[in-house]
Amino acid sequence: MGRKEIGTPTLEQLEAELRRETHKHSYGRVLRSTIYTLLVVAAAAVIIAVMFLPVLQIKGTSMTDTLWDGDVVVALSSTHYETGEVIAFYYNNAILVKRVIAVAGDWVDIDEDGNVYVNQELLDEPYVTDKALGACDITLPYQVPEGRIFVMGDHRSTSVDSRTKQVGSVSDEFLVGKILFRVWPLQELGFIN
Predict the structure, then answer these.
(1) In terms of C-beta density within 10 A (0-12 exposed, 13-18 middle, 19 or more buried), how is residue 67 classed?
(2) At 119, is the pLDDT very low, low, confident or very high (cuts 50, 70, 90)?
(3) Element spanning 109, H or E
């Protein structure tokens, strides 16, 4: 049998092979670069979500009629909180959501009908539909200690909050952030008052 001779490639064949190899290397480089970029963006999004804009799902009824069981909300990390703001904080390996009633140095008093007084002034609470003293085992009037916040749920008869020694006033170090925005359910999408 005869041997087939392998001839020297032509210039066109060499150029075609060079283009094919260059394209293959270029495609791999672009693919790797795209994957690395996506991983960095995903990692940055996770860090931002965890550190600055935590997304939380509401469990329970302590904040009805403002927030309902199953609502998904976005919080914003902060170092300054004011009366009336809805906040999230860590408590016993869980995150609770309540409303700021008073800050460090304020005096809180609650009468038998559930009216709340801060520094002897009746607190205007349009977000509360059913006022109640609820579970309260602290001595009233109560002064909020330095570095702490006094919080209560909007559904006063069921909420376990700063009115109990169990939860007490919340230390600054346990604060997650202000609840700003509801993202679920979609028909309730919007800012939280």
Answers:
(1) buried
(2) very high
(3) strand 107-110
